[in-house]
């Protein structure tokens, strides 16, 4: 039977898949939009569908989610993350999610806010020094350093600069390795010959050794610090009352570290980029920050009043969603919009394209934080905005991330003016997260604020 699903035709019939793969962010937010909201990219070995249609998204992520598993890229991630929340499936995942959920309750987050604010202040002070000579800084890299320090502090209470930089380096190298395996599967045999896999294994062994020692110390500590690791160690399964074993804690902890900093960091970097191009929005944001915080260190209570700050962050993540797409595969043949979707096909849900759908956004391609005014937001269907995903596998760290981004953005705009280097190219590079390919180079001009 003839299919009703449009197929991307492309300029060159043989390289149609390559046109999509070259930059799925630019493809799905650009030429893809003209094809429709559910279409197929012709690949030889697999059926690949791009979805931005809400009914399809709801079907895959919510109503029929039991028939779907995460796509192949996540399986490569297992090499580093083991069987943690991001990569596990089925009943095992469900049990882990139930166990970990309370760690992210608001009351717990309130408890770790202070640690977050301390690290934020220390990092912003370091940035003041770094920016002083007037050298441009790559804000994507700077944000990565700050969010990595925050997650390491809130997860492990890690303080030692040597440990911090080693863990940070390992995560970056491990990610490069996994991206390499995912994007060049035909070269995988070589990684076992040229030393890449050996180096990756050695790094992971170092990380595991560090974590297992830390867990040991924690169990003996009569007054363990109030961080995410302590919470994971003391969490108990509802059914058996038992705790996780060391390997499970390791997988969940490393997963939280990996999932918990690059996303927020890219979200912040893109938002700073947008603000540098929209001075009137920056000024409005700064007025709110100064009214709410004055020169005080931000408190958890302040966040509630930083409403425009939150709108700016939401709008930044609308245009440049750090997790720009979600991939799923049906386990058994499925039927969507009358089309048979064979087991093993890929459904590529482009969050980036959903976020720019002109049916739901007054100014789809413009930075316009008023999109998130409460009266406008309530008119929009829920799935029109989904930076944290949707359905049962939605991000567990969404409140953590928003709290962190609100805090850091407020601290940064209070302290600096941002001059983007105009001749430096800024281009989205969709890897595991949506990065700026050449970084975001800015000169930071310090403003006079005496933070007390
Ligand atoms: C702006 C920041 C963030 C964004 C945009 C983001 C986005 C997402 C998205 C879209 C998913 C769903 C993936 C899928 O369905 O395939 C997800 C899952 C997840 N995220 Fe985040 N995330 C952010 C921050 C964080 C933070 C701070 C943490 C932890 C501290 C975290 C931990 C996780 C975990 C563990 C999962 C897997 C949840 C599960 O399947 O049960 N994320 N995230």
Describe this structure in words.
- Helix content is 53%, strand content 11%.
- By secondary structure, it is an alpha+beta fold.
- The chain has a single domain, classed as Orthogonal Bundle (Cytochrome p450).
- A hairpin with a 2-residue loop joins strand 6 and strand 7 (339-341).
- Helix 14 (262-277) packs parallel to helix 20 and helix 15 runs antiparallel to helix 17 (307-319).
- The mean pLDDT is 92.
- Protoporphyrin IX containing FE (HEM) is lined by residues 70, 85-86, 97, 255-256, 259-260, 263-264, 267, 322-323, 326, 387-389, 393, 395-397, 400-401.
- Residues 70, 85-86, 97, 255-256, 259-260, 263-264, 267, 322-323, 326, 387-389, 393, 395-397, 400-401 line the site of protoporphyrin IX containing FE.
Question: What are the SSEs and their pairings?
Answer:
Blueprint: H1 16-22, H2 24-29, H3 31-35, E1 38-42, E2 47-51, H4 54-63, E3 68-70, H5 72-81, H6 90-100, H7 106-131, E4 137-138, H8 139-156, H9 161-183, H10 188-191, H11 196-220, H12 228-234, H13 246-259, H14 262-277, H15 279-293, H16 300-303, H17 307-319, E5 325-330, E6 334-336, E7 339-341, E8 346-350, H18 351-354, H19 374-377, H20 398-415, E9 416-420, E10 428-430, E11 434-436, E12 441-446
Bound molecules: protoporphyrin IX containing FE.
């Amino acid at each position: 039977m003839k299919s009703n699903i449009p197929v991307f035709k492309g300029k060159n019939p043989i390289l149609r898949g390559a046109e999509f793969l070259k930059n799925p962010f630019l493809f799905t937010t650009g030429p893809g939009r003209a094809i429709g909201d559910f279409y197929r990219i012709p690949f030889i070995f697999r059926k690949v569908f791009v979805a931005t249609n809400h009914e399809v998204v709801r079907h895959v992520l919510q109503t029929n989610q039991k028939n779907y598993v995460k796509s192949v890229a996540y399986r490569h991630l297992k090499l580093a993350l083991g069987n943690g929340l991001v990569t596990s499936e089925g009943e095992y995942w469900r049990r882990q999610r139930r166990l970990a959920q309370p760690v992210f309750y608001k009351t717990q987050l309130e408890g770790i806010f202070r640690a977050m604010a301390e690290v934020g202040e220390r990092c912003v002070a370091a940035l003041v020094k770094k920016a002083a000579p007037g050298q441009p800084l790559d804000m994507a890299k700077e944000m990565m350093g700050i969010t990595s320090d925050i997650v390491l502090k809130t997860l492990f209470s890690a303080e030692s600069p040597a440990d911090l930089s080693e863990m940070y380096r390992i995560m970056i190298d491990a990610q490069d390795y996994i991206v390499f395996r995912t994007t060049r599967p035909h070269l995988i045999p070589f990684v076992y010959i040229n030393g890449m896999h050996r180096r990756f294994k050695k790094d992971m062994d170092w990380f595991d050794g560090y974590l297992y020692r830390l867990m040991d110390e924690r169990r003996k500590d009569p007054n363990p610090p109030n961080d995410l690791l302590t919470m994971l160690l003391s969490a108990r399964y509802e059914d058996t009352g038992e705790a996780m074993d060391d390997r499970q804690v390791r997988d969940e902890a490393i997963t939280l570290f990996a999932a918990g900093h690059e996303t927020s960091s890219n979200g912040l970097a893109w938002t700073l980029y947008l603000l540098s191009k929209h001075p009137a929005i920056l000024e409005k944001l700064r007025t709110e920050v100064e009214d709410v915080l004055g020169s005080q260190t931000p408190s958890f209570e302040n966040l509630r009043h930083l409403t425009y700050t939150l709108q700016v962050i939401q709008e930044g993540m609308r245009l440049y969603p750090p997790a720009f797409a979600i991939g799923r595969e049906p386990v058994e043949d499925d039927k969507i919009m009358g089309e048979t979707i064979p087991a093993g096909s890929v459904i590529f849900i482009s969050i980036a394209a959903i976020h720019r759908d002109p049916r739901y956004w007054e100014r789809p391609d413009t930075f316009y934080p008023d999109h998130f005014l409460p009266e406008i937001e309530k008119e929009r269907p829920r799935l029109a905005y989904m930076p944290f995903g949707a359905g049962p596998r939605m991000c567990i760290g969404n409140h953590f991330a928003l709290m962190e981004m609100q805090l850091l953005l407020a601290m940064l705009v209070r302290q600096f003016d941002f001059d983007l280097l105009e001749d430096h190219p800024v281009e989205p590079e969709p890897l595991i997260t949506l990065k700026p390919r050449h970084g975001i180079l800015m000169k930071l001009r310090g403003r006079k604020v005496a933070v007390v």
